[in-house]
Write a structure and sequence with these properties.
52% helix
Amino acid sequence: MVRANEEVERRLERIAERRRMPPVPDLRFEYSYVRSVAPYVHIDSTVASGKGKEKETSESDSIDDTSPVTHPTGEVVRVEWGKILWVTTRDQLISPLLQGALWGVASHFLRPLGVVLGAHFQAWWSRGATRSKDSPDSEGNGVQWLRNWMGSILSPSAPSLHVR
């Protein structure tokens, strides 16, 4: 009885492994934001000298809008807040505002264009079709074209032009 349960358990594990889907990628903005902010965050490591004082291993230029912070690990972190503020404003405010404005202006012109093109396409598709009960087998240009195209793909013979 125990052996049957183990066998069933192994079978269920194999089924679960087969059904396992790959993880959904993390598409949040943080990775790209951290990448664009990374040049403005500087980490300088320090090494203790013989007299107990710390000595910086990497020399860096002093910038007015930076704020050095010393961590217990002996690292000095300098952040250029002005540039980070600019990157954040650009990525979170200016870019979405411009994209929204562009789509708003484009939709003002594209919507009427879509209506006109749709009306022309619908007229072409149904042209030639009579909607009377006398001739139920007549079709519009679009249906005829689609039927001929599918026939040329599916038929084994050489392609031919169908003329009305």
